[in-house]
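Exam prep: given the inputs below (a chain plus phosphoric acid mono(formamide)ester), describe the expected output before reading on.
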Amino acid sequence: MRHLLSTRDLSRDQAIAILDVAEDMADVADREVKKLPTLRGKTVVNLFFEDSTRTRISFEAAAKRLSADVINFSAKGSSVSKGESLKDTAQTLAAIGADAVVIRHGSSGAPLVLANAGWIEAAIVNAGDGTHEHPTQALLDAFTIRRRLHGPASRGHGLDGVTVTIVGDILHSRVARSNVWLLTTLGASVTLVAPATLLPIGVDEWPVAVLFDLDEALARQADVVMMLRIQSERMHAAFFPNAREYSRQWGLDDGRLDRLGPDSIVMHPGPMNRGLEISAGAADSPQSTVLEQVANGVSVRMAVLYLLLSGERTLS
Ligand code: CP
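Solution:
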């Protein structure tokens, strides 16, 4: 595999191999000198057509820790705002010698186009495309779950028997899609909980259970409760009941947090709408892995860049 476009493309062995390399990278992060010379001379371009905090800065940190040169490109303030096409942008990046392009784009499929169109030879990494996929987010989520379960002995493990409940705006969530494919490939059982208006057509063909009642889902005491951001920027008013009603029915508030099992963890990919899908008490509780997820994202993205660019191993 030359690119990372989707978790649906990953076999169980490939996914475990990425998580294991991420464990090696996390060991580097624990050192006093957090840098490896592995990608010296390589150029990684962060090509972001949509806003990002966590993904963009963690890809930048990951590339720098591997000694790659990093170019950050934001569509705002670039010639994209003058109408430049994806093709011309890609050919410009090819001309400056990009070895990897980490792309976030509002259109589902844009990374696939970049990988297949022949405009650029670089490895393409999907950093979130429309409502389609966000594979490195799912990998860092799986890494976080595996570490919570197995600690330093995580290497080689999948997520067999782990129960994961994903709650909220599934319809617009590339994080949910990537997690459904990856977590089930790794052996987890996934339940989705959402209002009917925030579930995609075709969800009945996904390898998941679907519930509409959060309290019924939480009574099953899942190992992991993953709350999703309400993506109001992608939402038509008709999809969304109202904030207070949503929070009452599908929000993880302090009362629901108290009813979780003592070993259950609470995840959120960020950015969070505190007080809407998750209370401040739940977000900041000892059961929350929100900041661990961010830290683990650097190790996982180091692993992905290393596997795609080092020439020693590939993702296949
Ligand atoms: N989780 C995530 O993708 O966050 P950003 O939008 O801040 O990158």
